[in-house]
Design a protein that fits this description.
two-stranded antiparallel sheet; 2 strands; globular; single chain
Amino acid sequence: MDVLLVIPPSVFLGLVLATFASFTFHTVLGRRQRSGVVYWPFGLAGFAAGALAATPLGATYLALGGLPVLGGLVGCLIGLLIAHLVLT
């Protein structure tokens, strides 16, 4: 339980949002039963890339704490679309 105290809240929120977006994407567009396991890393990487790209650009529209949520979700969606193209 002490590990959860070390993780910054913005990182934890990013993990939760990226996981929710990835499995929602799998529910809507997933074709195989286990494709959600493949979508999840792409969603996490896309969320991290989107959040990291939005910060220096100043695109912090819908930011919670230090986390640009909108940039992260756009990056997550791009990562999930790339994963969907790879799987099909």
